[in-house]
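Archive record
______________

***
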Amino acid sequence: MLIDARTIISSDSSLNFKFTDIPEAIVDFISPETHIRQVVTEVVARHVLGRIYVTLDIRCEYDSVCARCMENLTRQVETHSDLCYIPEGNEADAEDVDFTTYTGHFIDLSEAIIDGIYSAMPVRDLCVEDCKGICPKCGINLNLESCNCSHKEIDPRLAGLAKLLE
């Protein structure tokens, strides 16, 4: 996901780019049961006083499983980032702003896209907020049906006391 800094610097106005590639390195950041299906990144870049300002609007669609009931689900996340890039060696000129340096003539946006997607994804996916999960004894999905299992568990360390209550 490279953009040419020379093109942006030589332009008098903002430039728009659109990427539909899925960054390969994103697989290292997400769980094995999550599969990225689509990533669309819209980029607006402009040059101002030796700095390149980049706006990223990212939409990502992925397949995952509910953390409680293990049902398959598809989710979409959207995120927005504003970034500043300066050429390596000019760090002293940009002490007043958070920035990332770039070398050569190209700015690689892959890491920023991965960070945006990863920070927008929930820590645990749930099919619905009040998902009941699965029964730990019989494995029935409690969202679809109820079970007759006894959910009264006694800590084995206190089993002697439970006998006194009988």
The beta strands are 2-4, 15-19, 35-48, 51-65, 72-87, 100-102, 106-108. The longest strand covers residues 72-87. Residues 132-166 form one domain.
